[in-house]
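haha ok so turns out i had the wrong file open the whole time. this is the CORRECT one, sorry everyone. sequence first:
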Amino acid sequence: MSIRSRFAVVATALTLAVAAAAAARASSPPVGPLPAGPTASIVTNRGELVAVALPHRSNGRAWRIVRISNSGVLRQVSEADVGGNVVLVFRATASGTASVVFALTRGERPKAYESRFFMVRVR
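then structure:
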């Protein structure tokens, strides 16, 4: 196989991978109107980790991140099931404020059954 042919194969594979990733991200419909939910305020320092625990729910309902208002301040680094909760961990990457909003939906459907709001201030 010539270098030109190998380059074409690699370029095609990369294009398909990027398209598949974009399609996977685009497959989740946006969450509809959020019901009122509790708000928690968190203050932390730059470089620290912030963990949020959300209770597991039954009947195929799962928590989804609706939005992170300032991704330059918080970046998600992990997620795990711990006991009866799903725990999401974020790294405080810069000083500032960010809000993280969660919605409880049934699978990837847009109807929100519950919501949680976290206001994070990073010093």
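Helices lie at 3-26.
again sry for the mixup
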